[in-house]
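To assess whether ligand presence alters the predicted conformation, the chain was also submitted together with pyridoxal-5'-phosphate. Input:
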Amino acid sequence: MTDPRRAVPRTDALLADPRIAKAAEPLGRDLVKSVVTAAQQRVREGLLTPEAIVDDVLAHLPGHATSLRPVVNATGVVVHTNLGRAPLSRAAVDAVAAAAGATDVEFDLTTGRRARRGRGALAALADEVPAAGGVHVVNNNAAALLLCALALAPGREIVVSRGELVEIGDGFRIPDLLASTGARLREVGTTNRTHLADYAGAIGPGTGFVLKVHPSNYRVTGFTAEASVADLAGLGVPLVVDIGSGLLAPHPLLPDEPDAATVLAQGAHLVTASGDKLLGGPQAGLLLGDAALVERLRRHPAARALRVDKLTLAALEATLRGPLPPVREALRIPLPELRGRADELCATLRAAGVAAEVVESAAAVGGGGAPGVELPSVAVSLPAHYGEALRAGQPPVVGRVVRDRCLLDLRTVPPGDDATIAAAVRRCG
Ligand SMILES: *Cc1c(COP(=O)(O)O)cnc(C)c1O
């Protein structure tokens, strides 16, 4: 008997194979070697013939040197936290690539001296919200709140309504985040009703600021009351408003979603928001408002630990200055357009023998905001077993399994990806 291991092609021979060597250039030798090792193991186990090993290695090489894989979001959830929230616009992706090498992020090419870091992105943000006297960008909205607590309420109290003690997701809670800075939370009111007098009664010399948090992933309905931003702004202490989703101006389809410009016009001293929710940009925490307060935040030692990198600054500026990002396109796209695409996709699939149907669907903004708002949409409905098969495909397509059907909601699919979906479904055949 010949030893089957004798038949396993050697690692150096495989790495020298011209097709594998070419693929190794952009990926790096170590990564390719690990794929080669796995293929050799399959030969040893008799799962693969030695002749097929090169094709197998090529088939298993990732497209990029990262384990993060691009997926098609057909869930109908526009801002899908588990799928990386906002997909960047083409302009933002290009900006990231342009800034990836050496770049003048903190350098003035005219004078040859140090310049304000990320001034282009900051200017773009300031231009979008003229009511903001100052702007600053940190790692995410949680970081923005952390910085507010550290800079404005060290050893002091943050006054907040019991109806706004929000868990953001994955067990993270805003009250715990704030308390971790050493600031004390002064809860006022009740879960469903908090009045201006509740805040007024809690304010004193130990108050750092009043915090108003937008309930972005839940709704309190029924017998409810809350104090307005305008009222809270007049209490004589700084008012910080966490609007959550990151709309900079009102959005016609989301009338209940707060926006930075309006909240500042109502008197808020500082607004905090996420960059990768309804703004449609990179993960970032946006701070806008009173120039002196923003400067205090910027000057706090912790600001350095919360600052964003050049890639974020590049993507943020391009999102603000460039064309409508995918999140905003997904909100805007008219129903008949979605229906036309769904009809076409469905016809293609049925011609290939797939039991596909077009059905009405309700898309959602997602954890990013506007809880309870349904966006009318259209989906291609497939037998449920496609759900798992499509997730295992290349690229993975993530749909929504509802009872015995797998729904591919087109509101969150960029129009250019319909053909990708058709091919993915056919491969599951
Ligand atoms: C999402 C959200 C946060 C957290 O924002 P990140 O950018 O994820 O850190 C905080 N507050 C509200 C109201 C939110 O909606």
